[in-house]
């Protein structure tokens, strides 16, 4: 399982095996069952999660009980309520498991400790967040532009396996479209 | 002018005066006139900008010639096409000046040089991007939720002076609403 994290970090920065073992010692493995809640709105958020297997969703339910999906997280993706995590505030979103999931949890304190002790890990986390920021800005733009096909294509580019792993109504909730529109997009793209 | 950058960095990390002077030597001052283009769609992007005075807008115009505003940048804000900057790709958005503007330009190469040489600057840029990521996620959520009032309030919280500095049709384009809806929001919030 640790090999996945090692490979993931190696795509961005170089660590010796000893350095990686030290980094890994700051993570805690956790297992969740399908449907289990990882973060719930209003709770304290102390950790972020590197997904090893399975799939999670970060979502928000508004006053009219409509669900908005902010992010799916698949193996080698990170997930948390980053607003709450970074600002030591209460969660404003929920994260739960679409399937059984194995993750490596990293606490705020341990991430900051690693970043303070190892310049190379500060670099890793800087470059990781840069990618997240850019992805978020692109999604914002396609959402403003109401370009459903682009949002669909971006999602499928990011994770081609998603369409088979995630129930269709959740993909529709991510895109902000009806299931009928999603079917049209899917059939149009084949 | 440099004092603004020094204060801005000091909110996140501590630098000695000597360290700051070294950091500053990697920036280039630039002046732009009202309406002048800083980044245009399709061009190469080599720099990001720390705004000292004035106001810029990052925007995208779709096929139907409708304008979407991704970001305003005011004094002490950073702006660029970060997708293009980080991935050495061509710009997919435009940035121009709403008013005359003074900025400090930092090239990709100089930022990476500073980050490699100074752990403390790697930290600064990591924490800066963390904030940007969180703001972007929150805007995404309020956009998905179509909560215009919240988007308006978030914008006014971020920069209270905006309403008087920026033409109303641009604020409306940022929020994705008509000018009439914007007036209602403004009058409702007084």
UniProtKB/TrEMBL annotation, chains A, B:
Cleavable signal peptide: none
InterPro entries per record: cNMP-bd_dom, cNMP-bd_dom_sf, RmlC-like_jellyroll
Gene3D superfamilies associated with the record: Jelly Rolls
Domain Cyclic nucleotide-binding, chain residue ranges per copy: 14-114
Origin superkingdom: Bacteria
Protein name: Crp/Fnr family transcriptional regulator
Organism: Chitinophaga agrisoli
């Amino acid at each position: 399982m640790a090999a996945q994290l090692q490979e993931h970090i190696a795509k961005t920065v170089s660590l010796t095996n000893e350095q990686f073992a030290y980094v890994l010692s700051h993570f805690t493995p956790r297992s969740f069952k399908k449907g289990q809640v990882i973060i719930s709105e209003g709770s304290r958020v102390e950790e972020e999660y590197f997904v090893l297997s399975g799939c999670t969703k970060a979502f928000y339910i508004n006053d009219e009980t409509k669900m908005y999906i902010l992010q799916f997280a698949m193996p080698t993706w990170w997930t948390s309520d980053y607003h709450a995590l970074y600002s030591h505030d209460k969660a404003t979103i929920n994260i739960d498991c679409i399937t059984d999931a194995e993750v490596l949890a990293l606490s705020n304190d341990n991430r900051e400790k690693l970043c303070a002790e190892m310049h190379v890990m500060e670099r890793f986390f800087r470059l990781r967040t840069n990618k997240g920021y850019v992805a978020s800005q692109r999604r914002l733009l396609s959402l403003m532009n109401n370009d459903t096909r682009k949002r669909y294509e971006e999602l499928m580019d990011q994770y081609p396996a998603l369409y088979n792993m995630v129930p269709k109504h959740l993909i529709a909730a991510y895109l902000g479209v009806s299931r009928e529109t999603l079917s049209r997009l899917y059939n149009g793209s084949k």
